[in-house]
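Friendly challenge for the regulars: who can give me the structure tokens for this chain first? No prize, just bragging rights.
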Amino acid sequence: MKPDPDARAFFVTAAGTEIGKTLVTAALGRQLVDAGRPARALKPVISGLDEVAPEESDSGQLLAALGRPVDEATMAEISPWRFGAPLSPHMAAAAEGREIDFGALVGFCRSAVEESAAAGEHLLIEGVGGVMVPVTARETVLDWIAALGLPAVLVGGSYLGALSHTLTAARTLEAEGVEIAAVVISESAENSVGLAPTAETIRAFLPGNPVVPLPRIAAAAEPWRVAPPLIESVLQTK
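First reply, four minutes later:
Bragging rights claimed.
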């Protein structure tokens, strides 16, 4: 693939956990590659990792979506901070007698941003949990995004309560000066509210921000393959 002069870096975050960050990140990465646009994806911090089945992890999904093997080397490359306990990063690290060096985490991501810019490739950095999840005992995902100065792709759901969660996350990002590239409403399994009404309401309260509804995808080993087109509406790129 030829370098893309319009390549940019984005941070994919969410209003909560298990909402659809990985699906959105993997789908964006796959669609960029399919469009002939060089792309790279990182999941710097991951908790709840089953080392026996890394291909089933969020990091494994990102690697597979970009056509890369899932092995120890590639997992270490895109996810240097890996923990087994399904807890917030700071708790998962503490459970293993470890801690995350926030400066090192930010430095790792900044280096990736510089490398990708030089290579003319899009970079997608997937966060962990929601916007306010603690990464260390002092810093949250919000602090991480703000330190990098990257535009955020915010993923929300369509479950009862998602409106408040998504709008709170968006306002929190805005208050910290983080640019919101787009809000993706990933249809929830428990969808009593409805995808379209949720997206319409979010759009009304966040005028000027692209709000992209993402219909629920039936269970599949590689759901990112069948996701609808996202790169133009979410990343504002063709």
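The longest strand covers residues 180-186. The chain has one domain: 9-235. Your move, everyone else.
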